Amino acid sequence: MPFTTVDQAINLAAKAHAGQKRKATEVPYISHPYSVGMLLLKAGCSEDIVIAGILHDTIEDTLVTEKDIEEMFGKKVAELVTMASEPDKSLSWEERKQHTIDHLSEASEEACYVICADKLHNLRSMVSDYEKLGESLWSRFKKGRDRQEWYYRSLLASLEKKIPGTPMVKALTVEIEKLF
């Protein structure tokens, strides 16, 4: 039986993120993009959106390019991955995060789902780690609890305007309240 394009995306992401770990853990990084894809699948998103979720960090954190993704999965997937990626990594944390928040007002509904699933999985991981580590969790981040809270609450406010009332936005709200 041939692989589906979702299988191809999982394989590409696994190879691209090989050897990477989740922040300050021993958890293989691929668990994050895979989980993002599964959240999108559970939300009933199209195959292109699920694939974009699986590949959402490849342009930002690996040698995979937007052109590579477009050649393998098409223009729509490449655009969604690009929309979910942070710009220039040489910018400050605040500039990159503000760009993401501001960019949501222009992003398509599909891109908002990818971004929301990414942040939802990040928050769920943070909540789980907070339950084990308590306040020491915040030492993992260049910016502490207050700036993380600002970022996630700002994202939520933007996402509530773009994809209001969706189960994914409701889940994001729950996780933000648990963590902060």
TrEMBL record:
Residues 25-132 form the HD/PDEase domain. It comes from the Bacteria. GO terms for molecular function: guanosine-3',5'-bis(diphosphate) 3'-diphosphatase activity. InterPro entries: HD/PDEase_dom, MESH1. This is HD domain-containing protein. It comes from Scopulibacillus darangshiensis.
